[in-house]
Amino acid sequence: MATVHTTARGTEPYDKVYCLGYQVHHEDWSPYPRINRLRQTFLDRGYDVDVERLRLVTESYQQHEHLPEKLKVAYAFENVLLHCGIEIYDDDLIVGEIASPVKSAPIYPEFSVNWILDEVQNHPFEEREHDQFYIRNEKEKQEILDLCSWWKGRTLDDYINVRLDDDQLKGSEAGKKIYQTNLYHYAGTGHLAVDYARLMRLGFDGLLERAKQKLAALDMHDPEFCTKREFYQAVIIMHSAVKKYIERYAVLAEEMAAKEPNAKRKAELEQIAVNCHAVAGGTPKTFWQALQLFNFATMLICVESNGHSISYGRMDQWLYPYYEADKSISKDFALELLEVEYVKLNNPTKLKDRGSMALRNGRGFGGESLTIGGVKRDGTDATNDLTMLMLEASAHTRMMNPWVCVRMHEGTPEELRVKAVECIRAGYGHPKLFNDGPAIKGMMRKGMTLEEARDYCVVGCVEISLPGREYGWHDAAYVNTAKMMEMVLNGGRCIDCGPHCPRWSQCGALGKHLGPDTGSLDRYASFEEVKQSVDTQFEYWTNQMCSSLCVIENAHRALKPLPYVSALFEDCMESGHDLTEGGAKYNGIGPQASGMATCADSLAAIKQLVFDEKRCTGAELLEAVKHNWKGYEKLYALVNSSKVHHYGNDDDYADELFKFMFETYCKHIAGRKTPRGGIFSPGVYSVNANVAMGLNTNASVDGRKAGEAISDNMGPVHTDFGSHDINGPTAIVNSLTKVDHSLATNGTLMNLRFPQEAVAGIEGRDNLASFIEEYIHKGAMHVQFNIMSAATMRAAQKKPEDYKDMLVRVAGYSAYFVELGKPLQKDLIQRTELHF
Question: Which domain of life is it from (predicted)?
Fold first, then answer.
């Protein structure tokens, strides 16, 4: 491959070595003292529960209870923006939060309250093992209970519960946890990126004017006249409130400037006021103002709804015109502003139910991906000066957010590849890398043109989406394929499903079977019968899951429309349809599969030991897992040994079975119709849900014992006995690229871990860069790295006070290692350490 160079430059050499892995008792990383102060202030501040949004939203809903839903949400949004407390913090250059104090979690009662009432009274947030939140005092605790009690019977959760039937519930989080749809069952959908370039061109005045024009032009003979009228009315109410909200900050900055004795800070506050006045309605004229408009617009998405993964699109592309045109700003100050915003993007935090927290540890709002690099719509390389500055800002701040995503392709410039590798070697979990080839192909599978597909960004962990055009309901459900495999092994029942099972009565709908009886391991006459059973079980359970997701989606349309963020989608404004009504151009639903390698290695063990070599019978293997391998220690050791074929070793025997599992899941998801007129998109990733799923999964034929994590994402199996991949990183890449990643149009995820010494020095850096280049060339969609040894993580477990800001790449996201639960820490430590 020819070396490509770019004229894009940051403030530092592209091959600057930041450090190698996490440094205990490190010095400040940013060259800007302000950034180091802001970062430390963030780390020192605790996480609180904020009652103000709950109070203001409830007050508005009580006053407007008989209005249409779009107007209810509009007036509630207005009430919050006009009456919430606002604050400008020390060292702030960019202002605006999610209508709550920094690191305080608002409450969104519109979605669900039963879990809040239960946890406040019976499982206090502050007593959680991890991810604790603190209610400030007993008065606020009682207010939360009183206000949430009013919402009982009025929430999205209540609406959904009476519409799911027994067949849908038995496999869900309410039953056997074969799939879990609780993310959108209890909260907002999010997982989107708006058209920031359009917002910058129009400003809030332009959006308001467009809504007023469309409202005035409505045809009363249009059968959707009332629906569209309510949408435009809601947009006008909400965006008018936005202007007033931003002006509140301008006035506050002026008041603070008038009292500020420090001349430098006084000038900063005066400029903040100017910036707020400018973007309250108008369009930004400077780089600083563009960042300020971005911050307000993005934070307000999180005021409207608590759907996380509100991502920032291709920020180096839409922000670049303001950087290029601003002749008054130095490159150094532009970088400092980016770093201020990077730290600020960590402030939003989200209160989640215990079930969700078991799936995913971490107290951030979640999923704030920022995409840089890649190709332009015409196919040429998109790297620019901001691309490099945004990587520098990441290396200087080293915080959970934003989740920097670097798009790579065959023509990615050498400077960008090396700079990305230096950030990765620094060991703080950023950036994650995406391959334009399969990602663009996947976008086109969703019906997009080539030019649209090239403009993809990442939302959430690994989900590929089209900013301002796609409302994809990404991350809609977690699917435990290992539990589906139990149905294959055991005649449509879980391994532990018998009269002793507390949910035995739930299985009665199918004659004491949880799913259809498609055979069992003690009855199959051939391996082809096993594969057919897999196909049938997967079809049955994906039918149940997808129908459940359609119920949940219709509930959002009925009770929680999104007029504010819908106005940031051009197609919604043109059609008069909210995002929840199919107003976006592309309208998908994206559930993702977990445990693929667990299933593949299970099939490999069955095929090899039962049918090919006849070293044991199917009945013996079934009894072994029913007894959690107790009494079957020799068979347990064999299944976990290199004598049995395992995925991840460039072994066609096992890799073909992984391919079979991958394609089986994708074919049963892809192309199904959604209520919004789009199609379902399969994803193959677990984030960190494989750990929680494993806790609720019985022993499996791949050599897992009950309670152990199932395999993560696209990675190979690692059990308590040991890792199943033993042939090194090249073999893993060869295995995972035997599937067509573009079939997973909702994304794939691959975690890799190298200890620091494996990538040390110029040789180590070049080895990692060459490995990434080959990874891209072979066609995998995504990869992310932990540059950290198991010894470092064990040291952090022993002395967490010395590792408080040590970030690890959990899966699609990074988190502070010492804040993670013990099962997740264990899973991270057990992942294979790779060496070149």
Answer: Bacteria
